[in-house]
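Thread amino acids onto this structure.
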């Protein structure tokens, strides 16, 4: 047929690819495991952003309020609540992830203080826990199907519902949206990988091929190109053209972008825009500080408050834990110094407090507010007459 090929390669058999006449159904998506939803890029990015920021921000311990507030030494056990050597950031990340994915945090109380508050808690995987209220109104908890003593069981929930012992799972409430995200991703992968459109056309401009001849030419061409990157030599009249389909034409990017933005909104407003998803709005940020402030106010602060309450429950009264939100609002050097100048001029902060924010050592004269600037000298009246006066 006028086609010149190199030496034929041994035949390689592979499983036939399934023709895609319709998108795959939700039946292939399993969200029974907390981690399965993290296959969605938007879900993973959103929960990781919240959990990472919440666990990495500095934690301080105080007592008193207002002018009587005093910073206390953080207890050693609070620096490693699980007692496994991984520290508070690791423990806080686990707890936040459990809340974000399943709406509940569970743990085994390994140690308590004499006054009864827990000082060491080992967290459980949320999918290993079962809980209900028995006929006497008492909570019953199981770990991998085995009942555990309620006295040593630790439970903190979010998204509470009346007459339910467990909080609502964000993944369970929005399973359809997350399933759509995963289904769209798989459909797009199969579209471009499994040949929902032909990859190219092999044509002959000199003759009309019979079906048998076309099949033979196709088989020989596929045998020549499969499994290697060597050039193919075509005879007179033969032409091969690769078919390129723009992703925009297949509408996958548009559908996937909208779906991923919706998944981000499960965990708080503004996350979709911060993570770069097109949402159809006009929300823009002129500074990094403005973006961080939006994230803190609308999405992150509620998770920080919940974590603060958990850490406060592990402290003796009247001490309480506070997460340093100022560490999130990273301003430029110029903006930061403008704030310092305003704070010092209004005597809102002491010099050493500002120096501590900059990781500078304290100075002996910096314990109090900055001294007021000396007043500018007033212009004295000119008693001498100008030239020409008095004549």
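Threaded sequence (391 positions):
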């Amino acid at each position: 047929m006028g086609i010149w090929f190199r030496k034929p390669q041994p035949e390689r058999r592979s499983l036939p690819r399934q023709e895609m006449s319709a998108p795959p159904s939700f039946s292939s998506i399993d969200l029974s495991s907390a981690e399965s939803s993290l296959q969605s890029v938007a879900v993973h990015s959103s929960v990781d952003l919240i959990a990472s920021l919440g666990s990495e921000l500095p934690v301080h311990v105080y007592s008193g309020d207002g002018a009587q507030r005093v910073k206390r030494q953080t207890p050693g056990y609070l620096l490693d609540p699980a007692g496994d050597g991984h520290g508070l950031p690791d423990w806080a990340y686990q707890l936040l992830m459990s809340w974000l994915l399943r709406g509940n945090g569970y743990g085994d109380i390994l140690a308590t203080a004499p006054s009864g508050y827990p000082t060491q808690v080992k967290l459980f995987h949320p999918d290993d826990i079962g809980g209900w209220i028995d006929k006497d109104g008492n909570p019953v908890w199981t770990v991998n199907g085995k009942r555990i003593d309620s006295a040593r069981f630790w439970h903190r929930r979010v998204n509470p519902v009346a007459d339910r012992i467990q909080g609502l799972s964000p993944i369970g409430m929005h399973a359809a949206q997350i399933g759509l995200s995963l289904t769209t991703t798989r459909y797009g992968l199969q579209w471009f990988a499994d040949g929902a459109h032909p990859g190219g056309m092999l044509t002959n401009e000199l003759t009309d091929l019979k079906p048998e001849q076309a099949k033979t030419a196709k088989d020989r061409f596929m045998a020549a190109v499969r499994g290697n990157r060597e050039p193919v030599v075509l005879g007179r009249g033969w032409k091969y053209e690769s078919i390129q389909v723009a992703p925009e034409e297949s509408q996958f990017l548009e559908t996937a972008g909208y779906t991923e933005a919706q998944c981000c909104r499960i965990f708080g407003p503004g996350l979709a825009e911060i993570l770069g998803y097109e949402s159809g709005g006009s929300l823009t940020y002129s500074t990094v500080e403005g973006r961080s402030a939006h994230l803190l106010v609308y999405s992150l602060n509620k998770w920080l408050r919940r974590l603060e309450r958990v850490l406060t429950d592990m402290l003796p009264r009247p001490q309480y834990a506070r997460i340093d939100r100022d560490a999130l609002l990273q301003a430029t050097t110029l903006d930061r110094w403008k704030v310092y100048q305003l704070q010092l001029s209004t005597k809102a902060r002491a010099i050493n407090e500002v120096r501590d924010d900059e990781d500078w050592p304290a100075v002996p004269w910096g314990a109090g507010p900055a001294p007021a600037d000396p007043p500018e000298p007033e212009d004295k009246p000119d008693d001498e007459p100008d030239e020409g006066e008095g004549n």
